[in-house]
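Below is how a single chain appears once it has passed through the pipeline. First comes the sequence as given, then the structure the pipeline wrote out for it. We keep one example in the README because the format questions we get most often are answered faster by looking than by reading.
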Amino acid sequence: MDYFSPMDEVNILAKLADLKEEHYHQLLTLSAMMELLIEKGVLSSEEIAQKSTELDSSKARPPYPTA
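Resulting structure:
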């Protein structure tokens, strides 16, 4: 069994925090773009929801449970 040193664990947690921050900024940008497209009448919220459902149902499910 592999064990991580305390410093390895700190580095892993720091990388995880960086990923969470990047994910947050990506979601914020995506939300802003969606709101602008809706405000300008390019897309409706219903069209976005429908496309999201369509993409989600066509995506292959992983063979393991996800959170």
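The mean pLDDT is 91.

See the next section for the split statistics.
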